[in-house]
Design a protein that fits this description.
Mean pLDDT: 87
Strand order of the largest sheet: 1-2
Helix content: 25-40%
Number of strands: 2
Strand content: 5-15%
Largest sheet: 2 strands, parallel
Structural class: alpha+beta
């Protein structure tokens, strides 16, 4: 299962598994998705990587 809010990504990049659109900050969505899809492990690969933006908007990067 892939959970993504598509803020910087594209749906077409998910080629395998089920796709759930939404923020990982949405606790209810994440809990429902984990339960519904029988997820046994979680891996987070959604780090932000725009160096310039990280200097002008550091709070976004701290949150992520």
């Amino acid at each position: 299962m892939v959970n993504d809010d598509l803020s910087t990504g594209h749906r077409s990049a998910v080629r395998f598994g089920r796709f759930v659109e939404g923020s990982i900050g949405d606790r209810r969505l994440v809990c429902e998705a984990l339960e519904c899809h029988g997820v046994e492990a979680v891996m987070h690969f959604a780090g932000s990587a725009y160096v310039g933006e990280s200097m002008t908007a550091p709070e976004k990067y701290f949150h992520n």
